[in-house]
Amino acid sequence: MPDKNxxxxxxxxxxxxxxxxxxxxxxxxxxxILTVIxxxxxxxxxxxxxxxxxxxxxxxxxxxxxxSQDYGGEYSIIKLKVDIPCPGHGPLIVNELxxxxxxxxxxxxxxxxxxxxxxxxxxSKQQILAAPIFRTYKAREIQ
Length: 143
Hints:
Elements: H1 19-50, H2 56-61, E1 68-70, E2 75-82, H3 90-98, E3 103-109, E4 113-119, H4 125-129, H5 133-136, E5 139-141
Antiparallel strand pairs: 1-2, 2-4, 2-5, 3-4
């Protein structure tokens, strides 16, 4: 027989919790699972669909000898460290940079580093660093 003084009233199993606590734990668990799934769908899935995540590291590594690398023609790459609050802001920066005339491609790594491939005959490093988005989120060139 359950002891009515220890909070197990109505709980024949005597496990120290009741149906309301069980329900709260299930709701909490479901909420956490849905949050993780939502983050994946909203932030990671778009890059996977576009195929960007598989070669971001390779594209960023291309400039590992220095802050920019010549691609034989007029294409160069600059690596930027951008002060964004979280990786979820990465696509915002990518989209804004791609709007600049002369920017060919932008690779984003979750270390908040962006590799910007650009046509140096159409846009300079200084013009990229002066992009309007960098008034809000400060950027600096890195090695």
